[in-house]
Specification:
It is a single chain. The chain is mainly β. Helix content is 0%, strand content 48%. The protein has no helices and ten strands. The protein has a six-stranded mixed sheet with strand order 2-10-9-4-5-6, with no helix packed on it. A hairpin with a 5-residue loop joins β5 and β6. The protein is globular and about 40 Å long.
Length: 114
Amino acid sequence: VQLQASGGGLVQPGGSLRLSCAASGSIFNIDRMAWYRQAPGKQRELVASFTPTGSTNYVDSVKGRFTISRDNAKNTVYLQMNSLKPEDTAIYFCNIIPPLPFLWGQGTQVTVSS
């Protein structure tokens, strides 16, 4: 199985981006997929995920601004990011919960700057 994150880029503060993560290969429960990020000089953190009941969880710093969603037919998970702030600058990765080392991939760079 492979996970490919895409959709990053350079955006001004207050802007929006939509990240996509497509899963290929052996199928697992897409509900286990989640978004992580790693900012320069910081540890990787879990940003958004699904709960077993179908709800969603977010790190406090993105609540109300980011939305995780999925398309089961396409084996794809999305991260809609609105009202972006410079502190959201990071490499964004998709993986599952708990994360598997071989699924990290290169991620997609998000840079929020004026």
